[in-house]
Amino acid sequence: MIDLKQYEIWFITGSQHLYGPETLDKVAQHSQQIASYFNLHASIPVKVIYKPVVKTPDEIFEVMEAANQAKHCIGLVTWMHTFSPAKMWIRGLNILQKPLLHLHTQFNRDIPWDSIDMDFMNLNQSAHGDREFGFMVSRMRINRKVVVGFWQDEAVVNDINIWARAAAAWADWQGAKFVRFGDNMRYVAVTDGDKVEAELKFGYSVNTHGIGDLVAIINQITEAQIDALVAEYKTDYTLSADIASNEVKKTSIRQAAKIELGLKTFLETGNYKGFTDTFEDLHGMVQLPGIAAQRLMQQGYGFAGEGDWKTAALVRACKVMGAGMAGGNAFMEDYTYHFDPENSLVLGSHMLEVDASLASGKPTLEIHPLGIGGKADPVRLVFNVAGGNALNASIVDMGNRFRLIVNEVQAIEPLHNLPKLPVARVLWKPLPDMKTACAAWIYAGGAHHTAYSQNLSNAHLQDFADIAGIELITIGKQTTISHLKNQLQWNDVFYKIK
Ligand code: MN
Q1: CA 352–ligand 1 middle distance (angstroms)
Q2: Could you give the angle at the alpha carbon of 278 between the alpha carbons of 277 and 280, nearest 5°?
Q3: How would DSSP label each residue in 390-406?
Q4: 467: left (phi over 0), alpha (psi -120 to 50) or beta
Q5: Out of 219-233, 239-253, 398-412, which region has the weakest mean confidence (pLDDT)?
Q6: pLDDT at 217
Q7: Distance in angstroms (rounded) separating the CA atoms of residues 122 and 195
Q8: What is the pTM of this model?
Q9: Residues 427 and 415 sit within 8 Å (Cβ to Cβ)
Q10: Per-residue confidence at 374, pLDDT binned at 50, 70, 90?
Q11: What is the CB neighbour count within 10 angstroms for residue 416?
Q12: Which one, of 417, 447, 438, 448, lies nearest residue 484 by Cα?
């Protein structure tokens, strides 16, 4: 469902005619070599396309115009091998609508001490050429990522990889559709927000369907389709022992499969990239989608419960950013705490809908009462989640802007079996420590719903926030409450003026 290789980054080198054809030929050869190196590099998840060296304001304008129009172009990498007077870039940069990465590199890693002459100096000028270009981008207040270093350095390649993933997630949001089945959970604040502003800012649309529209599709699912999906459940999961002898539970699994098939048909037919539901609005449905949401998330759909469209969209963006990497990206909720002063922990989970892509082993398929919502006992997958570096991310609507909040966490293996807890769950220690992290999250207004990632770092979310042009608050190893409070106050003033 997510294919990053469909996307292109255009590699654009700036120069000018002053150097003459011989030098410009070399500039073109070197640029082709660098673009091709990135294009073939296993760590760069998208195509990197060499574009002819631009030497005039018109050439620059035309390539920017073409980039805006090109459906698969998700961003530009620019590099000034020689000097490219930056007033030439004004018209082009002024219309650029795609993300920008400025690669501050040099074709030669080392100075050739014995042979260096003025020809070498004439060609290898990015040390000052890139500063001229950088000034103009700063003067025009355009967000971009600046990556510094020799182009074959792994750290440089990885910086481009991270940015390319953020740019791909951004491209994926443009024109994306998210559907809400039912509205927001009644009276809940943080899951609500300005959907018009979100479409203006983020490029995706969110619309609601009454649950009856979904139920009509569910009711068209055939017995044969249900048979096939139940067979898949039996292969992929360990069914809890009580199901085999219990006719009600067997029926329950068939109903859950029917819901999953109906949901998937609805999403595919409408070309949706994610959805929300709410246990308060299930009119005509026999149970809350549990296993359906878990499996659809695993297939790449964004999801969040209780009508939380911002988190559903963020989960989808994280899935695009993390595509092809080991580990999962999932809808999550801070559920309950372990306040042992020696070993403070957060237990993350949801009522049912924990993404099966996080499972550390073969999940168990179980059926239990939900205790909320007044519907039939829903089917869910139960599993533990492995330890390791992870993060939680949340987008909130602050009234005059969207704020992205990231908390870096250390996930740990479950300490106990939790035999009576019939949902999938994750345990983590938030950084820098439990008290600081939780206080910082609450000061920042972070939601109880998050996108939980096992494979993204703060750097991915930083690039994504920069591309989106939104505020980012990171809570991690360096966070102190006094600095964070100041940052929140300064940002409030900044966004009022902006
Ligand atoms: Mn919730």
Answers
A1: 10
A2: 150
A3: EEEEEEEE-SSSEEEEE
A4: alpha
A5: 239-253
A6: 98
A7: 52
A8: 0.97
A9: yes
A10: confident
A11: 7
A12: 438
